[in-house]
Amino acid sequence: MEIGHIKPKRITEEMEESYLDYAMSVIVARALPDLRDGLKPVHRRILYSMYGLGLNSKAKFRKSATVVGECLGKFHPHGDIAVYDSMARLVQDFSLRYPLINGQGNWGSIDGDAPAAMRYTEAKLTPIAEEMLVDINKETVDFVDNYDRSRKEPVVLPAKIPQLLLNGTMGIAVGMATNIPPHNLSEVIDGIICLIDCPEATIEKLMEFIKGPDFPTGGMIYNTREITQAYATGHGKILMRGKAQVEEIEAGRFQIIISEIPYQVNKASLVETIANLVREKKIEGIKNIRDESDKDGVRIVIILKNDAQPKRILNKLYKLTDLQKVFHLNMLALVDGIQPKVLTLKMILEEYIKHRQEVVRRRSRFLLRLATERAHILKGLKKALEHIDAVIKTIKSSQTKETAQANLVAKFKLSQIQAAAILEIKLQHLTRLEKKKIEEELTEKFNQIKELKAILKSPQKILSVIKKELLEIKRNYQDERRTQVFKNPVEKFSEEDLIPDKETVISLTKGGYIKRISPSAFRAQERGGRGVIGAAVGEEDTVEHFFVTNTHSNILFFTDKGRVFQIKAYEISETSRVSKGQNIVGLLQISTEEKITAVINLPKVEIKENLSIQGEHLEFFVMATKNGIIKRTKISDFASVRRSGLIAIKLQKNDELRWVKTSSGKDEIILVTSQGQAIRFKEKDARAIGRSAAGVRAINLKTGDYVVGMDTIKKSKIKNQKSKLLIITENGYGKKSDLKLYKVQKRGGSGLKTANVTNKTGRLVDGMVIEDEEIQRDLIIISQKGQVIRITIESIPSLGRATQGVRIMRLRQGDKVASVSCL
Prior knowledge:
Layout (H helix, E strand, L loop, with lengths): L10 H21 L9 H12 L9 E2 H11 L5 H12 L9 E4 L17 E4 L1 H7 L9 E3 L6 E3 L8 H5 L1 E4 L4 E4 L4 H13 L5 H4 L13 E3 L1 H10 L1 E7 L1 E8 L2 E8 L6 H13 L6 E6 L8 E5 L5 H11 L3 E7 L1 E4 L3 E4 L2 H42 L1 H10 L3 H12 L3 H9 L7 H26 L1 H19 L6 E3 L16 E7 L3 E5 L14 E2 L9 E8 L3 E6 L3 E6 L13 E2 L12 E7 L8 E3 L2 E3 L1 E6 L3 E6 L11 E2 L9 E7 L4 E6 L3 E6 L13 E2 L9 E7 L10 E6 L3 E6 L13 E2 L10 E7 L7 E6 L3 E6 L13 E2 L9 E6 L1
Parallel strand pairs: 8-17
Antiparallel strand pairs: 1-3, 2-3, 4-5, 6-7, 8-9, 9-14, 10-11, 11-13, 12-13, 15-16, 18-19, 18-21, 19-24, 20-41, 22-23, 22-25, 23-30, 26-27, 28-29, 28-31, 29-34, 32-33, 32-35, 33-38, 36-37, 36-39, 37-42, 40-41, 40-43
């Protein structure tokens, strides 16, 4: 029943239609980004407003209120706070991987501080934002009426950069939401180029280039398999962790340094959460928390109590705080500006390529039209200059401008446009030079027309143009990835994956202080120098062990009492060159009466029966004591070394275990004593025995003499004529002697003389076998008082077997060489 112009309608129908209209308005015009330029309408309008104001990257800063007013008045009739908040996000380098606006003033912080009022802050576009607007005035995109039809605004930006993936986005619409993470520009461009070259590329292939999200706040993400699945389906979970490192403040005291936090985590809230957990005793062992962050980056310092276990506390921080957080990836965007769709990584790249193809095609048509129009005018000007006298005569004989134009058209067969251009030409353009310029410009236009037509006819040429432009963008804006990607899921994730597998130096003092140092801390010097300070040792302490290994290696520590312990090299805290280090008692369960006398490092492999290191078969540990006892035991007997230790050798009274080497079972052994004797014998002369058994005699020592060095001569190197025996004395003298000078004897003899020991040289402190490929390596020598020198082995001269050697290291008075290690 009708009453006037009012039609009755069921309220349910009206509610359904109104809700759908509202939902579509929010989806299309507010909450979701356009897949092509990766922008929501408000962000697009802000950038276009700044473009209209001339606020490019080289312009002066303008008040933010100017931009907000321009955007509100012309394109976005909503609240000024909504526009300003959106504008602020485009400025924040902790929100966007590649900020689109360069801000001046207070634009908020990672602590959740709000930006200053728009009357205080200033802004202009960043160079990368200008790439979003390049060619916008070349009919590359459609324009529509603004809200009051007073002007036009772009439906989408040309977007020379893949903005949707570079900076990501987050939005909540009606019944749907989007959450796309930011990515690295270089990786995304490489992925696009891969897809252009190979349209059949799979997600796995694309992920060879696009490793995963690259958050502006850095951090770490885990589980490549889950990331691949998320990219393949368009939604999934990505586990993020902040970057935290355990540091030793002093002996037995540690602190945790958080230098990067997960994306979209409020730093101030994170610190407050940790403090509350400590207060509620959900995390114990934390003494103090300090936020030392500044303009250079995040630094949250968590100082632990003396008895705290750093790893356990760090695991609790990951579990109970936002230091570990899940990013819920949902790659929802508007396809063609109207259809919301969940997209895979490949689909996003394909749609972006389609958009750029359309932009290049429309730009080429625009430029072709301009070039054709200009060429048409230039042809008319050229014809006029070729008949300049007749043209002037025709113009002079005409009564009016219109008559002159008509006469030129009729007499010289010109178009109206050409005739008008001729009438506008100035007298100064009638020179020969100007005629040449017109001819050159005409040739240039013909070439441009030819090139543009070729581009428009060939889809491959359009793709080539896109590739060329993307590579130029990459050259101009590429940077390093900030977020580390780990292959394993976090459940199987170990601390070892955080540590790069690299060469490292470990030193251990007589007092039991151990530390790990980077080899780069010691620069190479000429022999005979004083070296540099290598350790801060006490007056009654000396450096006894100084060896080179890799951070992921298994380090076996053998004590003078014949026991063995095992840890990973990275478990030893890395410190500075002059640091004292940490007490070994904090790492190993050894008594105060025993000390570490030998170490051996095995690569990151499982200790088993058939151990192979760098292609070399190894089967035995060869052990030697100070009193000349030797023992061979299978490596497999040490497969389960507990932190509480295992028996490695049964020792006689007043003897000490000093050296342990690996062997194949077919090697040779050489021992060197402090009084300059050396013996070389076959490994098989000492039969293999059990782990807890005693050894057999290797060398017959004179009274007061003791073994200072033991090494193995590998089976493959026995006949090597270039192998050397290197010896170093306590007063800093050293030499190399040909290994062939030492004949193979039977085990248990007194050996041969290997050095002339005098008061000047002092007793021998070490002896080792140097193969020919090791000549180019460096030798690190450390004294009892912590002085260190690094020299090349090649610089040490080769001398006879019974000579003194030459000065290698100049020691201070009262100091002596403590340890030698080959890098």
